[in-house]
Description:
InterPro entries: CGDB. Pfam families: CGDB. One of its GO terms (molecular function) is lyase activity. Keywords: Carbohydrate metabolism, Lyase. It is a single chain. The protein is mainly beta. The chain has one domain: Sandwich (Immunoglobulin-like), CATH 2.60.40. Helix content is 3%, strand content 48%. It contains one helix and eleven strands; from the N terminus they run βββββββαββββ. The strands form three sheets. Strands 1-2-9-6-7 form a five-stranded antiparallel beta sheet.
Amino acid sequence: MFDKYLINAASVHNTGPQDAPDGFAFTAKLGYYRGLGLSMIEELTVSVGGTALAREAVRFDEGNGPLTLDQMETAFDRRWAFGTEATILVAHPGGFPAGEHKLALRQKLRVSYLPFPAFNNDEKTVAL
């Protein structure tokens, strides 16, 4: 539904020391029109150049401090509101690769009234 609005391509930046980045981050929006509790976000898959990065490398921060995807499963008191940007942090030695690359985000959401998971996908060409 809102797939083309998930990734904010202008927000991509490296994290860690400037001369030796240890990862990268970008902001994203939820692809569901009502917002969801973080425990209902089953998966956030980040890919660079068509290669999915390890689940363990991804952290999520809606403004209340970063969580691993495993920690999100029991974050019953936290929500990702519709229309707000959250930060996706990725541990990736060397940071985001130099030059243009395709950055993709796949959200797997558990919506209470759907008998199947909802998937949202966005892919943008970004460069630092």
